[in-house]
Amino acid sequence: MPKILSGKIISFGKMANTVKVEVKTQRTHPLYKKVIKRSKNYLVDQNGLEPILGQLVRIQETRPISKNKRFKLLGVKTIK
Length: 80
Fold this sequence. Notes:
The protein is mostly beta strands.
């Protein structure tokens, strides 16, 4: 089962068919119960979609496309 993550586009247009997506996560420390925030950037294959800077998107894990690209863009995340 491939991972599906959601994040925000922080960069595009610098590499061919590639966007950079920032995925933020939160977890609670097991002992101190403090919320720890982490963020990670992923290089994502565009799949022919036109990105907009700051847009919320969903990405899916896939086979390696290049040296650093392991995700593809599924589409725009809908906010309810």
